[in-house]
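Write out the 3D structure for:
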Amino acid sequence: MTPSSHLDAAFSALADPTRRAILARLALGEASVMELAEPFSMSQPAVSKHLKVLEQAGLISRGRDAQRRPCRIEGRAFAEMEEWLENYRRFWEGQFRQLDALLDELKAAKKKARAATPGAKGKRK
């Protein structure tokens, strides 16, 4: 998979609320398919399909512990998503800084105009 296809798969997997709930559960620790299926009103095979999507996206992995196949969260895919989102966070922070500067400039101009207007002292709007 290319970095772009990793992101596509990860964000696509996260588009489903059941998968996000599964990840929230796995954030508490490893769990088997049976344990993950408990809170949902769906069959274990249906939960397994969700797990397969999460696994293919690199968001989880499955291990082997005797008869049990515990699932766990994998951090690498999340790190890639965070890096991608970080670029946009920086962009929006720059936009907000520019907006703040413009608003400060407008406030200063309004204050200056008010001070220059005769009889405007004491009136505030």
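The helical segments are 3-14, 17-26, 33-37, 44-56, 75-116.
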